[in-house]
Amino acid sequence: MNCIPASLENAREVSMLLQTLELLDEVLGTPYRGRSPSSGLYYTCRYPENWKFEFVRISDYCENSPGDHRNWWCKEVADKLSTSWARHLRTSFRELYPQIATLAQGFPHGLVSLHSNRVLYASRPPPGGESLESMVTRSFRLNDQTRWEESKSEKVLFTEKEALRALLCIPEDWPATKT
Questions:
Q1: Partners of residue 26 on adjacent β-strands
Q2: Domain for residue 98, yes or no?
Q3: Is 179 a member of any domain?
Q4: Residue 88's pLDDT band (boundaries 50, 70, 90)?
């Protein structure tokens, strides 16, 4: 198993390194040796400049799994969102982060399970850019037999989505569940 020991504190650096290696794969046309399919978590988040795909591959962690969506959201995604939006809105990170950290089910997200060979998604992100399927397939090295299912447990919650839209002044809308 290709495993990079990492704590949640340096997970961002590991993720950036792995994404850089994937870009080199595409440019050089040679696969990164040892990179195999992985289970994991992903989000499609609205940043001030555009929508971005955030993901964590479970196989990239030896001992310190990023855990569930809420844990990874608080440790990694909310931190990046707060930093970016604080600059854009000319407010402080300290003011935004506590609010954003509580809204883990406000953006489209999903779970990739190699064990059951499926992707459970909460909702599809707004159109534009690369398709969700191609981003998830490439990031997690999935095969063509992977099943895509709308999750009954992974939901974008309407109240959290609307709180994010109001807090960050996001004009776009995306699907959410009211219950």
A1: none
A2: yes
A3: no
A4: very high
